[in-house]
Design goal:
Structural class: alpha+beta
Mean pLDDT: 76
Strand content: 5-15%
Helix content: 40-55%
Shape: globular
Strand order of the largest sheet: 1-2
Number of strands: 2
Low-confidence stretches: none
Largest sheet: 2 strands, antiparallel
Length: 71
């Protein structure tokens, strides 16, 4: 999956390190391969307990918190 694809889906630009932090924090594996990311859903999330919508909310919240902390 490409960074551009992720950014298009969430509607904002995001640093690779921030994406990696969020995905890893949710238990996903996150590996960069040829300018793309291999993101693997952990087996305990096989019940689809988290959706792209929720990941998007986490990314946006993380961005907001980062802006507030810099004020």
């Amino acid at each position: 999956i490409s960074k551009e694809f992720i950014e298009k889906r969430i509607g904002i630009s995001i640093e690779k390190s921030e994406m990696e932090r969020i995905f890893r924090g949710l238990g996903f594996s996150f590996v960069e391969e040829n300018n793309n990311y291999a993101i693997t859903i952990p087996s305990f999330r096989a019940t689809k307990d988290i959706s792209l919508k929720e990941i998007n909310k986490l990314i946006l919240l993380s961005k907001e918190l980062n802006i507030v902390s810099k004020l």
